[in-house]
Amino acid sequence: MRLANKSLLFLSASAFPLSSAFAPTSSRILLPTTAARSIPSLLFAHETIIHNKQHPVEGPPIELDVAFGNVKETSHSQSLAPLAAASLAFLPLSAEASSGSNQVISAFVAYGHYLSLFVMVGALMFERLTVAPGMTKEKEQTLVLADAAYGISAVVLLTSGYYRAVEYGKGWYFYSHEPIFWLKMIFFMILGSASLFPTITSIKRTLAASKDDGSWQPMTEKLANRMKSVINAELVMMGSIPLSATLMSRGVGYSETIPFDIVGPVLTALTAIGLAFKYSKEALTWSEE
Predict the structure, then answer these.
(1) What are the contacts of 22-31 at 24+ separation with CB within 8 A?
(2) CA separation for the pair 164, 59 (Å, rounded)
(3) Burial 129-152 (b: 16+ CB within 10 A, else e)
(4) How far is CA 272 from the centre of its chain?
């Protein structure tokens, strides 16, 4: 029986420094770094309580200050063990701690996430500054290369973001109940859907340029202006995504009472499908008239 109590107390103490991983920042409990090293002291306190029960002595019982290892008198020390054991049921572990993921892998996933974001911004800025009426075939070919770099970086951003959400971050439960997370996903869907217009347009023009039937013509001012306006919208989304990420990571708007885990995916999917259809159709049916 004593061994079972001891094991339960050990698990409870181990979970304490990790218990606030899923909670919004405003409600987290910040524990001193010495708390993680105080488990042996907590076990010693538990042994002392058991000893006092079996061999009562005069005077108030003692309790160990878990954070700093100090012994002090209190009238509630005998309730320490059951309270600590009961608290284990309410202390969720972080995704990273529970899965035992390698910290180095987590760091590289985060690095890939940030690097892909920088590459996407650079590719978009290059496209925005390059697009102009009457471009040569060589210049349009550089647009295709920049768009390819943008697309690959977008895939890396989405993949690394997925692993950060479910494996190396606060856990999917936290993000699925965070409305700004879904707002960020909607921004990303707008970004990806809008990019279909310049991508499809560039592919169409590249295929036309590869033929010698005279079907290729220099880009008109109308098409160049439309591509610039779409790229401008993409840049606005690129600036909005990091802002929403910083608010999301701090638990702004977090709620478990509103079913964001259901509403969020539905709105995200509707946004992606609707805008993807719109921009794809516009690019495929583009007319200068």
Answers:
(1) 22/92, 22/94, 22/170, 22/171, 22/173, 22/174, 23/174, 23/251, 24/250, 24/251, 24/252, 24/254, 25/249, 25/250, 25/251, 26/250, 26/251, 27/251, 31/67
(2) 53
(3) eebeeebeeeebeebbebbeebee
(4) 19
Question: CA dihedral defined by 145, 150, 152, 154, rounded to 10 degrees?
Answer: -170
pTM of the model: 0.65
Pairing of strands 62-65, 70-73: antiparallel
144 vs 107: CA distance, rounded Å: 31
Structure tokens at 152: 């690959």
| Side-chain-facing half-sphere of 258: CA atoms under 13 Å | 9
d(CA 273, CA 268): 9
Phi, psi of 54 (to 5 degrees): -80, -30
Q: What's the burial of 201, exposed, middle or buried (CB within 10 Å: 0-12/13-18/19+)?
A: buried
Task: Count the neighbouring beta carbons within 10 Å of the beta carbon of residue 248.
Answer: 22
Instruction: Encode pLDDT of 90-130 as tens digits.
Output: 444 444 444 455 788 888 999 999 999 999 999 999 999 99
Q: What are phi and psi of 29, to 5 degrees?
A: -105, 120
Tokens representing 195 are: 């990019």
CB-based burial, 35-68: b 16+ in 10 Å, e otherwise: eeebbebbbebbebbbeeeeeeeeeebebbebee
pLDDT for position 90: 45
In angstroms, the Cα distances linking 177 to 3, 81, 183, 207, 252 are 39, 33, 12, 45, 11
Contact present, 5 and 78 (Cβ < 8 Å): no
